[in-house]
Amino acid sequence: MVLEKGVLIVFEGIDGSGKSTQAEILLRRLQEKGVEVVYFREPTKGKWGRKIKKKALHPGSLTPEEELDLFLKDRRENVEKNLKPALKKKRVVILDRYYYSTIAYQGAKGIEEKRIARMNEEFVVEPDLVFIFDIDPQKGLERIENRKRKYRLFEREDYLVKVREIFQSFKGEKFVHIDALKSKEEISKEIEEKALALIS
Ligand code: ADP
Ligand code: TYD
C-alpha cells in the first residue's frame, strides 16, 4: 500500500504504561496489511542515546539542563537521519517516545515546559497522532520491576507523579489519551482504529 504522504505516529507515557507493547503490536498489524512502516525509539542507539544511557546509570551525574541538552542532540540526529528520510519515502513512522517525553520528564525536574517545547519545535517534525498512555506510576513500576536495571534514574515514583501530570495536560486534536489499565487487546483495537483512520 503506497500512501500519499508519510505519517508520524508517536507513543508516549510513563515507564511501564505499556506503550512499547502497543507500538510493536501496531507495527505488526500494519505490516500484515502491507503498509510500509518503520519503527524508531528515543533515546536512540546513536552516540547521544548511548551517552544518555551511560549517564543514567549514575543518578545525579547530570544537571537537568545537561540532560535536556543530551536529549535534544539525540533527537536532532533522529529527526535528520531517521524520521525525515522515512517520511519522505511516504512511510508510516512509529516512534516510541518523542519530545513530549522531554517536556514531561525534564519539565518535572523544574525546567519551564514552554521553553522545552520551543527548543524542540525549532527542529522537530510535528507528529500526526500522539498516543499518551496514562497509568498510576506505582502500577507502571510494578509492571517493570523485574526488568534488569542497576538504577533507573527516571523512575522514582514521586517524580513520575509529576511526569504523569504533564503528560495528562497535553490537549488537542492529535492527542489520544489511553487508559493503560485496559487490556492489551482493548487498547490495541482502539489504536489500530485511530491509526487506520489516519492512513486511509
Ligand atoms: P513501556 O514501554 O511503557 O515502559 P511496556 O510496553 O514495556 O511498557 O510494558 C511493561 C510491562 O507491562 C510488560 O511486561 C508488558 O507485557 C506489560 N503490559 C503492557 N500492556 C499491558 C496491559 N494493557 N495490561 C497489563 N500488562 C501490560
Ligand atoms: P528507556 O529504558 O528507553 O525507557 P522506556 O523503555 O520506558 O521507553 O529509558 C528512557 C528513559 O528516558 C525514560 O525513563 C524516559 C526518559 N526520557 C527523558 O527523560 N527525556 C526524553 O526526552 C526522553 C525521550 C526520555
- Distinct ligands: adenosine-5'-diphosphate, thymidine-5'-diphosphate
Question: Helical content, roughly?
Answer: 40-55%
Mean pLDDT: 93
Helix/strand/pairing category: alpha/beta
- What letter string, H or E per element, gives the SSE order? EHEHHEHHEHHEH
Give the low-confidence spans. Answer: none
The oligomeric state of the chains shown is single chain
Would you mind describing this structure in some detail?
- The chain is an alpha/beta fold and 200 residues long.
- The chain has one domain: Rossmann fold.
- It is built from eight helices and five strands.
- It has helices at 19-32, 47-56, 64-88, 99-107, 113-121, 137-144, 157-168, 184-199; strands at residues 7-13, 37-41, 92-96, 129-134, 175-179.
- Strands 2-3-1-4-5 form a five-stranded parallel sheet, with helices on both faces.
- Helix 2 runs antiparallel to helix 3 (64-88), helix 4 packs antiparallel against helix 5 and helix 4 (99-107) packs across helix 7 (157-168).
- The longest helix is centred in the middle third of the chain and has 25 residues, at 64-88.
- The N and C termini lie close together (10 Å).
- The structure holds adenosine-5'-diphosphate (ADP) and thymidine-5'-diphosphate.
- Thymidine-5'-diphosphate binds at residues 15, 20, 42-43, 71, 97, 101-102, 105-106, 154-155.
- Adenosine-5'-diphosphate binds at residues 13, 15-21, 143-144, 183-184, 187.
